[in-house]
């Protein structure tokens, strides 16, 4: 876990924790657009967002990647919550002086801090893109007939209960039953990934934090557990409650073959928030952020408002 002795660039938060970060793209002082990227479960600031160098320079984009608390080289936060994740983002933006407003891109489980920012600091956001965002099954607006028989909901409910009342038992169960070998249970597993995702996993690092060896470290396990609970536990709002307008420039990118988060759940969000721009990838799985051309499409839609010809938003929201 992170500490103050790391050699990475870092900022010190008001509570004494350190957040590690890295910068990419054009120099901050020359940038027209400034984007903070929020990584997902088991990832880090070293995640790859493969937008083309030509487009980044053409648009003048500055990227700020950071290790969320407990990940990579950032200090753990034993009081992690949705609100604390929002505070970390706002404090990081202030200390690095990226300006009063910025863009956010939330990837997979990095979506819950991103929704939190839309709720608590909407005035700081120029626009937001969610990429394969997770869904909290406790959101009241989700149709019960849609989620009633979803096995993912039952698994999440069980894990939340054990996380709260018997975290030691959960740690044992994950090590002994979920991770029978030293490799990551998520890598090359058709339960979670479609054929395009499997091809992606052949050329990227995958999920090095989600291996049996890493999870045997209790501090690593506790970070993942606390992140999981903050994401899938009780919120004080849901996306349906937010005041999202056309000017909010909110986008959701999701694969129709995503096996981690069913596309039908994303479509229900749009029934309550019709001004969200929804981009559905017909053969896309959960790892669409790594597909060729997707990152360029995300930037063009988010920053320029361009309608994509390769990945058009779905207009018929038949669930």
Automatic annotation (TrEMBL):
All copies of domain Serine aminopeptidase S33, residue ranges: 30-289
Listed Gene3D superfamilies: alpha/beta hydrolase
Source taxon at top rank: Eukaryota
Protein name: Serine aminopeptidase S33 domain-containing protein
Species name: Arabis alpina
